[in-house]
């Protein structure tokens, strides 16, 4: 693998806020983190664990309680806001809904750190704006007013503004909030592609655990109590960090499937034989109906063999030395 360019790193970073009367509230401490060019990093964790505080701190909007933040080789606290604006572009949760502002004008605001208060765009500025529009597929509504856009379209425009800013690091706070499922998938896929194609570092906080496991190059996993685990998505699954961070009564992370089980273990056991899509969803249906899946050849367990796929799938049930075959999952479940 090629050597990675470190754009931002923290050393002994402690984050939190002033709690009044000279007191401070520590959220998380002694954080040693790195952001590399060309990587998409997803910040995950339960509500209230401090994700937004961490993003605000490393983007310079909030002072750390302790420790150092180095941005592109320079101490963050020594940089002027205009200098930071050329290194970090930030997209917050709230959408911009200024009725008189059209899409092109908002994307053009990304060039403000370079164009100054007069806002005069050079040919280079215009070229970067057009590249941002193309990268985010916002050309179809570039002439519309912001208040006429859907949430998904608005989020794409905010991302285009960040890309037009042309910074090596892009930070987004819950960019998929309020989006429907197709829009969430499209946005996460777009961010992954942008990191690879533009060699920018992209850091985002999100609650989309399943999508983060698929697209993130690194995951920063925060837990209540100030712990933060950083690593490959697969590493955090294998070492149990995901289970620890999101473990609650009645909800458990299943490392085998990368999903959360919301059903409590059933008292009836079933042994399922078969591979493929039909067998996978058969197990899901059985768990929902109060069964526990047993991998052992338990003579007390109901035994089900799933063969075929799609319209040709068959379910053969063996119980009490008798067997029966069904041609539909519904019909099979009704006999249990």
Automatic annotation (TrEMBL):
Q: Which GO terms describe its cellular component?
A: plasma membrane
- Source superkingdom: Bacteria
> Which GO biological process categories is it annotated with?
iron ion transport
Matching Gene3D superfamilies: P-loop containing nucleotide triphosphate hydrolases (3.40.50.300)
Q: Which residues form the ABC transporter domain?
A: 8-249
Identify its membrane topology class: Peripheral membrane protein
What species is this protein from?
Answer: Pedobacter cryoconitis
What InterPro entries is this protein classified in?
AAA+_ATPase, ABC_transporter-like_ATP-bd, P-loop_NTPase, Siderophore_ABC-ATPase
**Does this entry carry the keyword Cell membrane?**
yes
> Under which name does UniProt file this protein?
Iron complex transport system ATP-binding protein
Which GO terms fall under molecular function for this chain's record?
ATP binding; ATP hydrolysis activity
Q: Which PROSITE patterns match?
A: ABC_TRANSPORTER_2
